[in-house]
Amino acid sequence: MTSHRILVVLLFLWCAAIAVTPMLSSAGGFPSQVAGTSYAFFSHVCHQFDSCSFHVDGYKFPVCIRCMSIYASFFVGVLCFPAMKRVWQRELPAAKLLAVAVIPMVADVSFSLCGIHESNDWTRLVTGAVFGLISSFVLAPILEDAIRLLLVRTVTGRTSAST
C-alpha cells in the first residue's frame, strides 16, 4: 500500500470517528461509552463548545464546526492531491500558502472577539474549509514522506528512505 493510500485511510478513519460519535452517543449503553471516549480524545484537539458545534438529534459532534470543516476539507484535499500535483508542476510556496490559508480564520476570530462582527456557523465552516483544503496541499507531501520513512524503517530496519 502506498504512503498516499495509507494517509487517505488514516484521514478517513479520523473523519469517520468524528461523524459516528453523535450516533454512538444516542444509542446508549456500550456505544455511548465509546462515544464518551471519543469526546475525551477529541477534547485534546478542540474546545468542543456546544454553541460552536453541529448537533444530530441533540447530540453534538466531538469537534466544533471549524475543526470539522478543517478535517473534512483536509481529507478532500488529500484525495485530490495526486491530480493537483500533476497540474501544479512547480514547488508550492508552503509558508505563503499557509499564511494565506490562516488569515480568514484569524480575521473571523479576531473580529468576533473585538465585537466587529459575530462569528457564526457559516464563517466557521468556510474559514475552516479554506484552511483545511490549502493546508492539505502543503502538508500532504510531508505526511506522505513521513509515512514512507516509517514504512522503510519498519520493513527494513533502516534509518533512511534513501539507503
Keyword list:
163 residues; mainly alpha; two-stranded antiparallel ribbon; 2 strands
Could you write a compact summary of the structure shown?
The chain has 163 residues and is mainly α. It has helices at residues 3-27, 29-42, 65-87, 94-113, 121-156; strands at 55-56, 59-60. It has one domain (3-156).
Characterization of the model:
This protein has 163 residues and is an all-alpha fold. The chain has one domain. Helices cover 72% and strands 2% of the residues. It has 5 helices and 2 strands; from the N terminus they run ααββααα. It has helices spanning 3-27, 29-42, 65-87, 94-113, 121-156; strands spanning 55-56, 59-60. Strands 1-2 form a two-stranded antiparallel sheet. The longest helix is centred in the C-terminal third of the chain and has 36 residues, at 121-156. The protein is flat.
Helix content: over 70%
User: What share of the residues does DSSP label as strand, in percent?
Assistant: under 5%
Low-confidence stretches: none
Average predicted local confidence, pLDDT: 90
Oligomer: single chain
> What is the count of helical runs?
5
User: How far is the N terminus from the C terminus?
Assistant: 20 Å
Reading the helices and strands in chain order gives: HHEEHHH
Provide the spatial order of strands within the biggest beta sheet: 1-2
The number of domains is 1
The backbone outline, from C-alpha atoms, is: flat
Strand segment tally: 2
How would a textbook summarize the main sheet?
A: 2 strands, antiparallel
Main structural class: mainly alpha
